[in-house]
Design brief:
Length: 228
């Protein structure tokens, strides 16, 4: 399956169920907008007083909350890529990360561990840190898959399986993400973020579906590093 096909499938889902995707991503968008507004206000505050210090903490909390919600949304998008869910109940699915304690705790635990590992690699050089970030990129989804299958694994095992899954695919995954750069730039000028972000995220979810499929060896060989 080529990048073009992954994107075509994402566009087809988005165009057919656009309102569903908008509502699904809405809580994440709201948190990100609130974070941006607060950050802009802090930038205009010349004096670094107690209010500014507290404000920075609020920005960090909002960013962390938005990241958690987005991870839960990605779980939903992966299910859509596997045709395991109908396009219903977007509001409740927006908070998937909160619907199960193991999802919430696992995402936080993995996030902390991956940050530590990536930071330590970054102390060597910037590039190794980027490479490890790509290697660990699928860990949360792998951990969640094991939970759903009733075979809970450790955080380190999820990271190890992500490294194994991404072996030979890190550059490919980097290029897939990079292919959306123009789309995000276009958001500033023309295109609405409420279309571009779901489009990009559903494509990345479809990518994981291909890599994690039982017949993944054949499918992985078909993935191409060219994208439109």
């Amino acid at each position: 399956m080529t990048f073009s096909e992954l994107k075509r499938q994402a566009r087809a889902s988005l165009n057919q169920h656009f309102l569903y995707y908008v509502i699904l991503f809405l809580p994440t968008f709201i948190l990100q907008i609130a974070m941006s507004i607060l950050y802009a206000k802090l930038e205009n505050n010349i004096s670094y007083d107690n209010a500014a210090y507290t404000g920075n903490w609020y920005v960090a909390i909002l960013g962390w909350a938005a990241s958690l919600l987005l991870t839960g949304v990605m779980f939903v998008l992966i299910d859509h890529g596997r045709h395991l869910r109908t396009y219903e109940q977007p509001v409740s699915r927006s908070f998937t990360i909160l619907n199960r304690g193991d999802y919430f705790i696992g995402t936080i635990g993995l996030g902390i561990l991956m940050f530590i590992y990536t930071f330590l690699w970054s102390l060597l050089l910037f590039i190794p840190g980027i490479i490890k970030m790509l290697s660990y990129s699928q860990a949360c989804y792998i951990y969640r898959d094991h939970l759903d299958q009733g075979t809970k694994i450790s955080f380190n095992q999820a990271i190890t399986e992500s490294r194994q899954m991404m072996a030979g695919h890190k550059w490919e995954y980097f290029l897939l993400n990079l292919s959306f750069l123009g789309w995000y730039i276009a958001c500033i000028l023309v295109l609405p973020t409420i279309w571009v972000v779901p489009y990009a995220q559903q494509t990345l979810a479809n990518y994981y579906v291909v890599l994690s499929a039982p017949a993944k060896d054949d499918q992985q060989d078909d993935l191409m590093t060219t994208a439109k």
